[in-house]
What does this fold into?
Amino acid sequence: MALRSFCRCTLFLRHVRNVGIQTCPTISSRHTRLLSTSPIFRTDMAVPSDEDRPQFPGSKSTFTEKLEFLQPDSYDGIPVYRVMNRNGQVIDPTQDPGLDKDTIVKMYKTMTLLNTMDKILYESQRQGRISFYMTNYGEEGTHIGSAAALDPRDIVFGQYREAGVLLWRGFRIDEAMNQCYGNAGDTGKGRQMPVHYGSKELNFYTISSPLATQMPHASGAAYAIKRAGMDICVICYFGEGAASEGDAHAAFNFAATLDAPVIFFCRNNGYAISTPTKEQYRGDGIAIRGPAYGITTIRVDGNDVFAVYNVVKAARKLAVEENKPVLIEAMTYRVGHHSTSDDSSAYRSVDEVRYWDKEDHPIGRLRRYMLSKDYWDEDKEKEWMQETRKNILQEFAKAEKVKKPSPTEMMTDVYDSLPRSLEKQLEEMKQHVEQYKEHYPTDKYDEIHD
Amino acid sequence: MASITGLTCKTFAPISLFLRSLRKSLPKNLVRNASAFTFHPQDPDKSLGETAKMNLFQSLTNAMDIALATDQTAVIFGEDVAFGGVFRCTVGLADKYGKDRVFNTPLCEQGIVGFGIGMASVGATAIAEIQFADYIYPAYDQIVNEAAKFRYRSGNQFNVGGLTVRSPWGAVGHGALYHSQSPEAAFASCPGLKVVIPRGPTQAKGLLLSCIRDRNPCIYFEPKVLYRAAVEEVPVQDYMIPLSQAEVILEGNDITLVGWGTQVHVLWEVAELAKEKLGVSCELIDLQTILPWDEETVVKSVQKTGRLLIAHEAPLTGGFAAEIASTIQEQCFLHLECPIQRVCGWDTPFPHIFEPFYLPDKWRCLEAIRKAVNY
Ligand SMILES: Cc1ncc(C[n+]2csc(CCOP(=O)(O)OP(=O)(O)O)c2C)c(N)n1
Ligand SMILES: [Mg+2]
It folds into this structure.
């Protein structure tokens, strides 16, 4: 069976490349037939065909008398869809998403805002002002391209390196600062490490550190949304490292078998902390797994914000209109260290990093595009960068002055209401801190209350 | 390090200066306040010969170095272990012993432990690393249903005694929900496993070598806050410390204090405070092995002191202190002068910014001693 199907996958992917982002109608109908219990499918099963096809319920294929193993390299690598080349020139004008100037400038501004916020928060961690930070350097294109193509009502299940998606949706700098400080303004009430953002208002579920756990959640949420008849979808971001977890497999397989309208968006940035992709998997990245699960799949240049936009827009249509899961593998590069706990010079060369930073950066590519269109110039750049830096530093200084939430908040929200046992523990803590107050940093926190 | 971020960041210096100007002095690290502990180094055992100064992660590297050198079947694997591990415990070992013996795995905890079980099942020595104890749960099925029951279910035809799972454990000052947990109690109800937690470099080396060579699957939790903070003169030779034996660190008459890992150091300071402030003489016991635990040493001590305090970072309810307390009330009922005291984390997830209020710190422990002796 497999060789043929694999060839067909490759054909499908080639077709996708040829027609750009439109999906192949033959393939979609094939998928629908495979996944549904349509009468056609049942007839296929029941009536032995003249061609003497295998009737095994577990697969649809043909017989062969050739003993031939399917080799991992018996098909081409999945192509990387792009709109612009590295110089920011659109290669095939039919693929230009045709966004207006304001939208493009907003994309650029959000990408650079994220970049400046990262620089400031990274540095502030180095100075011991916040406890931890993770930058998004080099992956701004994947965030903004995808976020811009979604409906703001679409539900986001993130991993942790997707702050740009939040910024695009209107997450304010002060909200980010408050979370990183875990101060009384943090909607997460100071409980989680920095960068574990969440916003009910922006349909962005709160980040959880354990990897890939959000992936099956995304499938489940999408399934429920489908049942509720809502015209929205779910997007689930994850790293190529997280894709090795068992939960990733469960998520793909559930979404495929239950036709859940979810977009799986893999940020393949080359590393999982120190582990390079060649030690993470042996196949052709994450995208190749899609067809194996029966999921419509595409690979995209994550440093090309327009390409990401096109792909997510098309994927969203498939999810919302046809109730299909879609797998997108965005190829990019983690320019920064994994986190403030990491020094990546221990496992990769500065030259390698420099290449991506200088030669193939999503911000640089979009800037070149904008310069060529006269949407942007040096003066605008200077002015915008100054303004952004000033704003962020102001918000930062403000957030630093805000007290931490009341230690009472340590005990709330464990359950919907405080159980008796915690009521007792809260009382005990209160009494203890009162009695030993000189040993607790109570002045830095709002007061303990019942 | 700055060079890399510096690549994308031409404006680094001014930002840095501005941040510094925000406040004259940096805010004192909030979390260090009440949760502070003082590491009490152990005197080197002269009978073990030559020593070298090592911190906890170095003594663990040293133990694994010896394990690889003395056992050709031994391998070390896990996420990011090849370049030395995120806590630097395996630095240099891949270079010394080769990539087939010290290697990265794909990012999958159930895979790591399952793979280790398979290796151990054919007689190899498998030393698996789970990057944080908080991330051991995807492997829970493999540990609890497979590793722990491999011998029993086969009538002792098969076993995976060669498996050791190492994992960083416990509070660190800023780890929050998912970089701070102490899940030892979750494994304490899994007959077939051994669960071990060291308190310092010398003991860590001997206990890890025992776990690696023990003929039962072992879970070895490493107090991550001690990796750098704990420094001792560690014997360089190959030595082992027996499992399932608690150590009486301080002898005393009025109350027995039981802890493991980092908490031993908190209790050590508490014992000093209790003497100074309350005139109470404490007997301090490091349990070391959680499963199967050394009942006898604790019973003997409580029969003498008549009082018991157990402290751990994990939540109170269902914590291992509950198990100890129930055994001791059964064995020492008539010796007890007061209810057994448990000072533990509250029954909440581990909170980031509230860590100083969450931990069973020295003041909470001291207060419990005061209550116990005044009962
Ligand atoms: C279950 C689990 N195991 C291990 C970790 C520790 N960890 C945090 S991030 C990370 C690497 C993730 O890499 P990837 O998914 O590629 O995302 P990236 O950091 O590259 O964005 C690891 C191993 C974790 N958070 N959760
Ligand atoms: Mg990655």
Summary: DSSP finds 16 helices and 14 strands in chain B. The first helix of chain B runs from residue 2 to 8.
